[in-house]
Amino acid sequence: MFGLRVALACALTLGALPSALAQDTQRFRTDKVEVIVETVARDLQNPWGLAFLPDNRMLVTERAGKLRIVDAGGNLSEPLQGLPRIAVRGQAGLLDVALDPDFARNRLVYLSYAEDRGEGRAGTSVARARLAENGAALESLQVIFRQEPGYTGNNHWGSRLVFDRAGNLFVTLGDRFDLRDQAQNPANHIGKIVHIRREGGAAPDNPFLNREDARPEIWSLGHRNVQAAALNPSTGELWTAEHGARGGDEVNIPQKGRNYGWPVISYGVDYSGAKIGEGTRKEGMEQPVYYWDPSIAPSGMAFYTGDKFPAWRGSVLVGALAGKLVSRLETSGNRVTGEERMLQQLGERIRDVRQGPDGFVYLLTDSRSGRILRIRPAS
């Protein structure tokens, strides 16, 4: 573990452009390459998750409870019909979206969202449905997972969706803010990462299948609020980044059955400044691969494997909400060896990061008039 906290490059806007163009296309110098950041689409209400369809159009969620298709020209479809009932409050709403590994054959789409459970309670749920041939609706929707128990709070829903190589689904689940101690309790889904089959039910390689005192869907425990997750294309392992409290945002490589410490150990302090738990280390609890202090509020993650940015190949790109940046983590095996903080001068809360099929990098900005941004080489 090392404490590298220094940005390796400051973003520098170059050139004089007319104001309208300057808003839509900006040039930045990073440590490895000069890039252009351009607006693909705008006027999305707090966009949260992004998935590319086989024809290169994008499915985009809006936290307010809308799912849209965005074409290459940045045109937004009308909201798709057939979505589940979604609880929209605080940090809750329609969250991530992922395509089935066999989407080209079955047209199945997976959504994570806050589901109303009655009496003011809600919980993170996952549903899957078939995208209609005309793209206007979801059909035959089924709820395949529900976080238990539901709770009245409005925060820390987790909700990233990542398929593994076997076609099973990882779902990240937050501690709901007020229930932090339950992240250590394997009898519920609070503060956990779960691993389920595509049709629902525990994946066959899960660690707690034969324990009566544990939920069989659990993969790992001791998480606060994981909002960034991606599969390492070299190893097939899940990588995540989660929010700390005041400091202590973490990058982890969650292994089955392992405990990642929250709220017993943390590299941050509480919002009041009070100490959290027992310190930074405890036997039987895992150390992060990397951490940020002060916090950047990580959200969205992608391993860069494309050909448009050869110098970034193998890097992990992580969006940041509070930090208003993209963190590029250089790696060697399962170690983070360096960090470059990019695009701070955009001044945008970055909610999601994806590599497109064209090899460019796409970002979602988190605001009531959110945008889809594309990063491409300047030359």
How would you characterize the overall build of this protein?
It holds the Pfam family GSDH. With 379 residues, this protein is mainly beta. The chain has 2 helices and 24 strands. The chain has a single domain (21-377), classed as TolB, C-terminal domain (Neuraminidase, 6 Propeller). Helices cover 3% and strands 39% of the residues. The strands form 6 sheets. Strands 1-2-24-23-22 form a 5-stranded antiparallel beta sheet. Strands 6-7-8-9 form a 4-stranded antiparallel beta sheet, with no helix packed on it. A 4-stranded antiparallel beta sheet has the order 10-11-12-13, with no helix packed on it. The longest helix is centred in the N-terminal third of the chain and has 6 residues, at 19-24. The model is unreliable at 1-22 (pLDDT under 50).
List the topology elements.
Elements: H1 19-24, E1 25-29, E2 34-44, E3 47-52, E4 58-62, E5 66-70, E6 94-99, H2 103-106, E7 108-118, E8 121-131, E9 138-146, E10 161-163, E11 169-172, E12 192-196, E13 218-221, E14 226-231, E15 238-242, E16 249-252, E17 290-292, E18 298-303, E19 316-320, E20 325-332, E21 335-342, E22 350-355, E23 361-365, E24 370-377
Antiparallel strand pairs: 1-2, 2-24, 3-4, 4-5, 6-7, 7-8, 8-9, 10-11, 11-12, 12-13, 14-15, 15-16, 16-17, 18-19, 19-20, 20-21, 22-23, 23-24
